[in-house]
Design goal:
Blueprint: H1 27-33, H2 40-43, H3 46-56, H4 62-78, H5 80-85, H6 87-98, H7 104-121, H8 129-140, H9 146-161, H10 168-177, H11 179-184, H12 191-204, H13 219-222, H14 225-234, H15 236-244
Helix pairs in contact: 3-4, 4-7, 6-7, 6-8, 7-9, 8-9, 9-12, 14-15
């Protein structure tokens, strides 16, 4: 099986050894040159940059991992075709960063880069990475760090737009388990997080729809009472949206 498809959560990812043997700049000089914009490609060939970032993304130094994730985000923004060529390796690196055991900065940068990458590839061919990303994004929705919460809501909402038939049942279960978090953070202490939550709530609302089953309950009785009660009090416009789209 292709080594690039091995799960990075289980073992370190092998970095391709086909990098041309050129004079390597030091870590400081290399990253000081990169402005993380279009000028990235003016410093070194994209292939060389990618190999360097892939190596640094697994460095024991958290700051180097953080900068590597930021660099991958810049490449995904400015040269998406180059990143798509190594998509499975990049996804492995980003999922690994998403579960970084020590650095909130690495986790945050990984989420931001994943959001960029998913937008570029329209969520296609994620495979089982979809599960890894969904589970961690959902966990981070309640994190104490405002930046992590914000990026988690943005990423989770984006996942809702890219759910394929294969993962629809799984994602539906995750959204229903996330309902309390969605309701809570509509009133988040950070206005940006609250806004991101509201956008994500709309994106996830179709997955909150209860399956219609034959019963003697009235339509009103089958509605989610907790959801209706909280939305009617704090966000009547969202409740109206759910009713208009026959989600409730």
């Amino acid at each position: 099986r292709d080594q690039t498809q091995r799960r990075i959560l289980g073992q370190p990812l092998p970095i391709p050894t086909t990098q041309p043997k050129k004079k390597r700049t030091s870590m400081v000089s290399f990253f000081s040159k990169i402005s993380w914009t279009v000028s990235l490609q003016k410093q070194e060939p994209p292939k060389n940059v990618f190999f360097t970032l892939a190596e640094r993304a697994q460095d024991p130094n958290a700051k180097k991992r953080h900068m590597a994730m930021r660099g991958l985000g810049a490449m995904a923004s400015e040269t998406p075709d180059k990143v798509k060529k190594y998509k499975k390796i990049v996804l492995d690196l980003l999922v690994h960063g998403l579960y970084d055991p020590v650095s909130a900065d690495v986790i945050h940068e990984s989420m931001k880069t994943l959001t960029i990458l998913l937008g570029k590839i329209q969520g296609k061919s994620l495979g089982s990475f979809f599960i890894d990303i969904t589970l961690q994004a959902r966990t981070l929705l309640d994190d104490e760090n405002d930046n992590l919460r914000y990026s988690a809501f943005v990423l989770f909402g984006q996942l809702a737009d890219f759910v394929g038939r294969k993962w629809k049942k799984f994602f539906t279960s995750q959204v229903k388990q996330t309902q309390d978090s969605l309701l809570t953070h509509l009133q988040d202490r950070n206005p940006q997080v609250a806004t991101a939550c509201k956008t994500t709530f709309r994106a996830c609302s179709p997955y909150l729809k209860e399956r219609k089953e034959y019963s003697f309950q009235s339509e009103a009785d089958q509605r989610n009472p907790k959801l209706c009660r909280q939305l009617s009090h704090y966000h009547p416009e969202l409740l109206q949206f759910l009713y208009a789209n026959r989600i409730l």
